[in-house]
Amino acid sequence: MKYIINTKLKTPAYIQLYNQIKKDIVRGIYPLKSKLPSKRTMALETGVSIITIEHAYALLLDEGYIESHERSGFFVIFSKADVFLSSDEKIIKHNNNFNNILSDFPISVFTKTMRKVMNDYGEDIFTKSDNLGCIELREAIKKYLARNRGIEVELNQIIIGSGSEYLYNLIVMLLGKNRIFAIEYPSYHKIEQVYRTMGVNLEFLNLGLNGIESSELQKTNANVLHVSPYRSFPTGVTASASKKYEYIEWSKKENNFIIEDDFESEFSISNKPEETIFALSEYDNVIYLNTFSKTISPSLRVGYMVLPKCLVNKFIDELGFYSCTVPTFEQYVLAELISNGDFERHINRVRRKKRKEMFSNIRNN
Questions:
Q1: What is the tens place of the pLDDT at every residue in 233-262?
Q2: What is the per-residue pLDDT for 39?
Q3: Pairing of strands 303-306, 158-161
Q4: Pseudo-torsion of CA 79, 80, 86, 90, nearest 10°?
Q5: Residue 40 DSSP one-character state
Q6: What does the pLDDT look like over 29-87, one tens digit per residue?
Q7: Measuring CA to CA, which residue among 102, 103, 81 is closest to residue 32?
Q8: How far apart are CA 173 and CA 42, in angstroms?
Q9: For residue 41, what are the contacts with CB-CB under 8 A and spacing of at least 6?
Q10: What is the pLDDT of residues 337-364, one digit of tens each?
Q11: Would the pLDDT of 12 be above 80?
């Protein structure tokens, strides 16, 4: 398979190569269990360095399109045709150290930004924000999502709230308590606690090694699926690319919704827009959630959700009267951190550390 690297594009060579290989995997040019060309062969065919090939393969590994077999090479593990047919091995233990990851966001950067916001905004930090959240923060998040998640949305699709638990409550009120919500098992205990407190019917779907068991999705009566595809807590399970398409396939039934809880995804090794279910789906029925508790600090109780277009007017009409629960000052600080690049510089530092670990493993194949 001949791949072309356009040196005139601003897109890095390894991203171009990644996109082309991924497209061929999704199209079935490289079918399930087939072997990709060796790094040396691919480098000779494309005219780029082996390091560039390693970077492209690392992204495919990270997103679950391929897997590495020591001293044997790289094999495709994605198959769109296998939706609902796979039988995943069950999770038998938790990653007990999973919640011990501490943010090392530089306190000096945070305090400098706080001082700048106070100087720039003055008494405006005491004003009440828009009910959906400050326009400045929502605008910063909008641009950030476009750059880093491939999520293109309008400003009124973004809602700011004080952490994920608060946003779960809003979602239940928005979708209705008469629905059946399905959650991963095991999962973050507060998801279950919030939903039970809100009085909704719950189903627990067992996790396999690459996401919710296919058989569990087939038999569920739920019409709302709450998943953490990048890294489920407390197991650390990541949904493969195939599994994400499986979730989307499940969701195409009329009136079904997916809640994509994008926990800790900023710390993937990817240096490109992350593949989210929200961006992949064409059905306008995914609610995207994220917070700043891992990327900055758990004491900063700020989260946001992105609504599908079909729910925006319903939210504004029925819940738009709720005041934003995050102080205006904190919203301005976050907006400044995102807009001036400090937030992404911190994320990229963490990613570089992870890439070094990943690439050292790849070079052994």
A1: 898 888 988 899 999 999 999 899 999 999
A2: 92
A3: antiparallel
A4: 80
A5: H
A6: 999 889 999 999 999 989 999 999 998 998 888 777 898 888 789 999 887 655 554 44
A7: 81
A8: 52
A9: none
A10: 999 999 988 888 877 776 666 556 555 5
A11: yes
* Model confidence at 138: pLDDT above 90: yes
Q: Where are the alpha helices (DSSP H) in the chain?
A: 13-27, 39-46, 50-62, 107-121, 135-148, 164-175, 189-197, 214-219, 241-251, 277-280, 309-319, 328-339, 342-362
Pairing state between β 286-291 and 257-261: parallel
For 58-111, strand residue ranges (E) read: 66-69, 73-76
Name 218's Cβ contacts closer than 8 Å, sequence gap at least 6: 84
Q: For residue 189, how far is the Cα from the chain centroid?
A: 19
pLDDT tops 90 at residue 129 = yes
Q: What b/e sequence results for 216-228 when a residue is b if at least 16 CB atoms lie within 10 Å of its CB, and e otherwise? A: bbeebebbbbbbb
Average pLDDT over residues 302-313: 98
Question: What distance in Å separates the CA atoms of residue 163 and residue 175, rounded to the nearest whole number?
Answer: 19
CA 216 – CA 84 distance, rounded (Å): 9
Tell me the pTM.
0.79
* Angle of helix 342-362 versus helix 328-339 axis, rounded to 10: 50
What secondary structure letter does DSSP report for 38? P
CA distances from 315 to 97, 153, 169, 190, 309 (A): 38, 16, 13, 23, 10
Q: Identify residue 43 by its one-letter amino acid code.
A: A
Taken in order of first residue, the domains within the chain and their CATH numbers are 13-78 (1.10.10.10), 107-347 (3.40.640.10)
Give the strand pairing for 286-291 and 211-212: unpaired
Assess contact for 155 and 142: CB atoms under 8 A: yes
Please state, rounded to an integer, the average pLDDT across all residues of the chain.
88
